[in-house]
């Protein structure tokens, strides 16, 4: 598969997505309107458009506002916690056991099939063939709940490395991670660096979090996590300094 570009890896940068990307990555998730408008400037989003988007988000309960500081609403606070867990999967030693889920009913509605695929992807399973999903049993706290008409097994395979190559395109994932790393390492607060940070979150959520012994010799997963955390720390410090100036 051809690796995606930075534009393809990052979410579409509308006023709403810029504001959410900033707040979901902020610690704490609270930013002054000037910071949100400044981020919008990178994508030629007018201040009036950003203010209008923020007002709509407050009205919809996505954000709260007090003294010109915007914070995540309850739903997005939960999303932030989930995102934090997704980008830092906890692994345990691999003993050769694989998790397997088999969908035993045919004829599901398209919407139901899409929801199942999304659920399996969130839990880092990959589809071996139609209705059969697998992954190494090496994750902590990622137990997939019992689903109606889905059978659950634990199994071993003859060659785990061969199966990994069949289930995941690790070469493409690594190539895209390297592209994000280069953009994240650029100096200053550029449009490209902002896009890379947003893209890194998405990319890390799709990291299969495989055992070390099943990964290629060079795997940039942890390096991308560290680069993203460095970006967040830098942004958080800048935001704290700005908040002091605004008080």
From TrEMBL:
What InterPro entries has UniProt attached to this entry?
PaaX-like_N, PaaX_C, WH-like_DNA-bd_sf
Record-given protein name? PaaX domain-containing protein, C-domain protein
Superkingdom of the organism of origin: Bacteria
| Pfam families in UniProt | PaaX, PaaX_C
Residues annotated as domain Transcriptional repressor PaaX-like N-terminal: 15-72
**Domain Transcriptional repressor PaaX-like C-terminal, first and last residues per copy:** 190-240
Q: Name one GO biological process term.
A: DNA-templated transcription
């Amino acid at each position: 598969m051809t690796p995606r570009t930075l534009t393809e890896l990052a979410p579409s940068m509308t006023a709403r997505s810029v504001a959410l990307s900033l707040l979901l990555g902020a610690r704490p998730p609270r930013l002054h309107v000037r910071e949100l408008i400044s981020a919008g400037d990178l994508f030629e989003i007018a201040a009036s458009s950003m203010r209008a988007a923020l007002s709509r988000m407050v009205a919809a309960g996505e954000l709260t506002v007090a003294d010109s500081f915007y914070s995540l609403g309850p739903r997005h606070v939960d999303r932030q916690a989930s995102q934090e867990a997704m980008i830092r999967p906890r692994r345990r030693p691999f003993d050769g056991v694989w998790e397997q889920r088999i969908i035993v009913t045919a004829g599901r509605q398209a919407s139901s099939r899409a929801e199942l695929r999304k659920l399996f992807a969130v839990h880092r399973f990959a589809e071996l063939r139609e209705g059969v999903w697998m992954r190494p049993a090496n994750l902590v706290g990622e137990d997939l709940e019992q689903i109606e008409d889905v059978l659950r097994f634990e199994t071993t395979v003859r060659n785990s490395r061969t199966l990994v190559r069949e289930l995941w395109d690790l070469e493409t994932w690594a190539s895209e991670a390297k592209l994000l790393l280069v953009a994240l390492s650029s100096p200053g607060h550029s449009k490209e660096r902002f896009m890379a940070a947003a893209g890194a979150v998405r990319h890390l959520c799709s990291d299969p979090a495989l055992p070390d012994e099943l990964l290629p010799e060079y795997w940039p997963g942890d390096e991308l996590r560290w680069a993203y955390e460095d970006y967040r720390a830098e942004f958080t410090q800048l935001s704290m300094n700005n908040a002091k100036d605004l008080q």
